[in-house]
Inverse folding.
C-alpha cells in the first residue's frame, strides 16, 4: 500500500488531542460545531486547540446547515484552514460560503446507493473537496459520525474533478480493504479513534495511522 495516505482526525475535543493527532501524522484535524454531537466544542475551546496546531496540518470546522451568524463567529474566533459542510447545503449555498469567507470548502455527500453519487458532480463544481460518507439512518440525530460504512464498490475506480475523502465506519481492521476497493488517498474518521463518545484514544490514533499507511 502506498504511503501517501492523508488522514483527517475529526471531532477532537481536548487540547491534548492536538499533539497526539500530529504525532500520528494527521494531515487534517477537525472540530465539530454541531451541538447534537458528543464531539461538539465551543469556538473558544476550538481556538485554543487550533492555535496549537503546527503549520502544515489543516484545521477544519465541521458545521451542519450553519447560517452566516454562526460562520461569522467561527471564522472570527478560530484560525481555520477549511470549512466542512455536513448538512443539506445546496451547491448554491456552498458557492456562497466559499465566496463570503475565502476559505476552501469541503462538502459531505451521503452515500447509500448508486443514485446518491449523482450529487457529487454538482458539488464538485463549487467545492474544493468532497467527503463521501455513509448516509445516516432515517432516525439518526447526526448527519455523520455514526460509525457506519457504505458499499465501497459503488465508488470503485471512480474519479472526480476535485480531491475527495472517504469517511464512514473506517477502522484499523478494514482500512486496508477500504483503500484497496475505493482507491481513496484521503480518509476521515472520528468515532473509531475513541474510547468513549467524544473521547479520543491516542493509542487508537497511532494504530489507525499505522494501519492506513502499512
Amino acid at each position: 500500500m502506498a504511503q501517501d495516505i492523508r488522514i483527517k482526525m475529526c471531532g477532537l475535543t481536548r487540547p491534548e488531542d492536538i499533539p497526539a493527532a500530529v504525532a500520528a501524522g494527521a494531515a487534517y484535524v477537525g472540530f465539530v460545531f454541531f451541538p447534537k454531537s458528543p464531539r461538539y466544542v465551543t469556538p473558544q475551546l476550538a481556538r485554543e486547540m487550533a492555535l496549537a496546531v503546527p503549520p502544515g496540518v489543516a484545521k477544519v470546522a465541521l458545521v451542519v446547515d450553519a447560517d452566516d451568524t454562526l460562520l461569522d463567529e467561527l471564522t472570527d474566533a478560530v484560525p481555520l484552514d477549511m470549512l466542512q459542510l455536513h448538512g443539506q447545503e445546496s451547491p448554491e449555498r456552498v458557492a456562497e460560503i466559499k465566496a463570503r469567507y475565502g476559505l476552501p470548502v469541503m462538502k459531505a455527500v451521503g452515500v447509500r446507493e448508486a443514485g446518491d453519487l449523482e450529487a457529487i458532480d454538482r458539488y464538485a463544481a463549487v467545492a474544493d473537496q468532497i467527503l463521501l460518507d455513509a448516509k445516516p439512518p432515517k432516525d439518526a440525530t447526526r448527519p455523520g459520525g455514526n460509525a457506519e460504512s457504505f458499499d465501497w464498490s459503488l465508488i470503485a475506480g471512480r474519479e472526480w474533478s476535485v480531491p475527495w475523502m472517504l469517511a464512514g465506519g473506517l477502522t484499523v481492521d478494514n482500512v486496508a480493504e477500504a483503500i484497496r476497493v475505493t482507491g481513496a488517498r484521503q480518509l476521515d474518521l472520528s468515532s473509531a479513534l475513541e474510547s468513549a463518545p467524544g473521547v479520543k484514544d491516542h493509542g487508537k490514533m497511532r494504530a489507525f495511522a499505522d494501519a492506513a499507511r502499512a
User: Anything to note?
Assistant: The first strand starts at residue 6 and ends at 9.
